[in-house]
Amino acid sequence: MRVKRAYGLKRPKLRQSWNKYNLYNLSRAEPPNITTRTFFQQKWSAKSTARAYHGETVKEKHWQRMFRRRLRSVIPMDHNQLARSDGYEQAEGRGSGLEPHPDNKPRPFAKTPYMNMTFAPLERRLDTAIFRAMFASSTRQARQFVVHGDVKVNGKKMIYPGYLLNPGDMFQVELDRVMFATGASKDARERRAGRKARQKSQASAAKSQDALPSDTDPAPTTEDSSLTSTADEPSSDSNKETLQSLLSQAKNLLTTPSSASKLSGKRKQDLRAFQRLLKRTLSRSRNQSIFPQKNTILTDSLDAQLQELTQKLNLNPAPPADKKIDPRDLGPETLTPENSSLLRKALTEARENPIDVTKPYATPWRPRPYMSAFAFIPRYLEVHHRICSAVYLRHPVARPGLGEVPTPFGNDVNALSFNWYLRRR
Q: For the chain, what is the HEC assignment?
């Protein structure tokens, strides 16, 4: 089956995505020509154009059940005017021709784009909210994150992309998933380094397996037993084997029908949590065995690193900041305060954003190209990017001069789409 192209250039359809072809289609989008079409044709073409952007993964029958005739809106009122009077002066001049001074007349509000709220119910979906919070590069990717179990709602894992958020709900996405979605992809050199690291880890694992004693080996002598008894700590390979055996035992308990039927629900939850803990421990130990030097930069302080670098480069330490020294008096081997601050800044960046070829994205992390055009957060979301979580504050509303549902289409297209779904079936 041939996959339908989502970002066509001949007949472009706008999508909820950060793709560069989608950005190009957005830049050359034009209002549809409706001069030679009937009203039915206008409504159908507007509906098909808008639905390609709003909820492309939602079936049409499902969206028809979600559609609401009522459009949420608010009218802001002048609090200063409400505090000054209670409305008696509006009835004071009835019939007498009394009008307020032109400076005291209330300014007219801008028009409220009610029709831009046609697809507001879709903004409650979990996959759409993840895309709006800039945790995914498209709604399709956000849907994948939810299905794979990388999203939590109110602290509990949620695997349904169509879950409708309520005001006050908090959703959170795994940090690595967000870094992968919003970060730049690896180039050929970085992918090659990752492959070499994986091959090296596999070779070291094979050597460690070969070094283990087999069952046919002779029993150790008394001298060998005395030497082995003097070992205080077990090796890392034996610890890894113990963890793997525990993981396999927990898996057998959960998958074997005879044993699983005897376990209670609470016991099964504890075993699954134990499995996750073992997997995290094994993955952490594997990364440390591949790159033992990558965690050293996180343990030492910045001052110690700075002093070590100056000693290795045979540089004289920088003079105190309060002491005034002519720059011409400093030798070529003296570290100036400006260079010292730059070096400290570089060390800080290396600490916070290290190079790690095991990650699926380019490191040090940098934003993906063509991202700035889509970098905005709607008003109905409160996002914390450091912990990759957001709160759905309220339902989007229309206010004078602003519709809170982000849409690339004008009021005419949304009005025709609203009229299409407004008809009685």
A: CCCCCCCCCCCCCCCCECCHHHHHHHHCCCCCCCCCCCHHHHHHHHHHHHHHHCCCCCCHHHHHHHCCCCCCECCCCCHHHHHHCCCHHHHHCCCCCCCCCHHHCCCCCCCCCHHHHCCHHHHHEHHHHHHHCCCCCEHHHHHHHHHCCCEEECCEECCCCCCECCCCEEEEECHHHHHHHHECCCCHHHHHHHHHHHHHHHHHHHHHHHHCCCCCCCCCCHHHHHHHHCCCCCCHHHHHHHHHHHHHHHHHHHHCHHHHCCCCHHHHHHHHHHHHHHHHHHHHHHHHHHCCCCCHHHHCCHHHHHHHHHHHCCCECCCCCCCCCCHHHCCCCECCHHHHHHHHHHHHHHHHCCCCCCCCCCCCCCECCCCHHHCCCCCCEEEECCCCEEEECCCCCEECCEECCCCCCCHHHHHHHHHHHHCCC
